[in-house]
Specification:
Blueprint (H helix, E strand, L loop, with lengths): L5 H11 L16 H29 L2 E3 L2 E3 L4 H10 L18 H14 L1 H20 L2 H13 L2 E6 L15 E5 L2 E12 L8 E10 L10 E6 L1 E3 L5 E4 L2 E6 L10 E6 L5 E6 L5 H37 L20 H33 L3 H37 L10 H8 L9 H16 L2 H15 L6 H30 L1 H6 L1 H25 L7 H18 L2 H11 L1 H5 L7
Parallel strand pairs: 3-6, 4-6
Antiparallel strand pairs: 1-2, 4-5, 5-11, 5-12, 6-7, 7-12, 8-9, 10-11
Length: 592
Amino acid sequence: MYRAPLRELRFVLEELLGTATLAAYPAYADYSDELGASILEEAGRFAEDVLAPLNRAGDLEGAHWSAEGVRSCAGFKDAYRRFAAGGWPQLGADPRFGGQRVPQALNSAVQEIVASANLAFKLCPMLTHGAAHALELCGSEAQQRLFLPKMISGEWSGTMVLTEPSAGSDLGQIRTRAVPEGDHYRLFGQKIFITWGEHDLTENILHMVLARIDGAPAGTRGISMFIVPKVLVAPDGSLGQRNEVRCASIEHKLGIHASPTCVMEFGHDRGAVGYLVGAPNHGLEYMFVMMNTARLAVGVEGYAVGERAFQQALEYARTRLQGKPPTARGSGPAPIVEHPDVRRMLLTMKSCTEASRALAFYAGTQLDLGAHHPDAKLRTAALERGELLIPIVKGWCTETGNETATLGIQVHGGMGFVEETGVAQYLRDVRITTIYEGTTGIQSNDLIARKFGRDQGAAMQALVSDMRRELQSLEVLVPAVSQVREATVQAVERLEHATRALLAGMAETPARGFAVSVPYLKLCGLVIGGWLLAKSAAIAARKLDGEERAFYHAKIRTAHFYARQVLPAAAMLTQVVEGGASSVLETGAEYI
């Protein structure tokens, strides 16, 4: 049974990040801690009562394909109707078109709740939000007026349509054609791996499609982005005839069975009608607007499934009687939570989930500051930090979510390997998050090639300096916080050394950086998460005498465990970054 971790979410938003201070900016003038808490409470209630009960049933049933279209699992259509009626698609969207602006961190918190309850369901509104965001920033005024109100209300959904059978992640090889015809284009081509590309939840689906206009330059420089509706839309917003868009099949996947992953065909006769977004040949640039939004969301999904796995593992460990650990009192078997190694696994799950949550929300807050801070210099610095953190959030939080789901099975022992207990679904579902919106390797390459490349590591060095300064100024009221701070300071120093080594290696031979990019990304997530937990522990130490003493004491113990049992991996990762590249580059493919 899923329970939204409302107190944990509020701690990060209110006490660690202080998101209420964003109310000083006009975009968030109506925001307060009270409003945030109310939204979280309502999201938790909806997720627990409506979405979570459908999670297991959707996994067992799966989406249904036929030549006429795709039918969603039992209960999903009604759940989506209630989701839209509750105004959830409006959260975080442009108020000009019916949305409600809230801090990105709060939006991420709501996304966590929905993803923990039912990841397969959550993917549909997540992609719609990304498509709407792209239109907000890149679409014409006419396109915004025509499409955004229905997307933001939840009446219509949206997709990202990138991948082709022959292209994969190499978008420069896209072959889908766009032929000019009056005020629109005709598209011809096939796309694969289109999440919720066809379904019965909404009356229309707006596909954001990457294609190449006839005569465009080769490679990524010749890619444009188009809006291709499933059903054509008249100028007054009414629906017309069906466009030449069809779902040829849906994939048979490891997990997220209730989410249809579609093979989409555009233009079987005259061509699918599409509308150019922005300028020709700038499609990849516009798509990255969607991808950055989606990558933050997928990072949240990774640890959110881990949170669900942790909750079920903890409940099982408290009720499963097995053996008698050395610390147990009385005779007879004890709950397995009393066994030291089971407790270690649970604390690993808990601490890594809390570190991931803090990292994701911190990244969202930086994006908010980058968009709304009145000081231009601080606005630029915050935006650069937020963009730096996006691949780390996406890569590390999803990798951590996979490890957490694996530990959830291990806590259950043999019963975890049996489908009837339900814990295997979390591992099967979360596995896509390290692949979706770019694999961990693609995220790490983005981190060192694009984010490092534009400023030679200046944004990372600034973050390291801020972490060191804040750790030195932490108020230490209990010995455990002192120990956490000491361990985290050492980890930050290792990150700094690894960063310098990475930059030096890339200056000598760029390939050296790519050979250790994933270990470096994991090091970044591990250390930044540790820094945020250290700050959390210091906050908690000031509140141990109040009514929530147990909650704050747990915060300190979780941070202490992370510092002693998780954070030491920073030493190993630093060693890999500093000296591991040659073991890759000097081994030819013929020796693998």
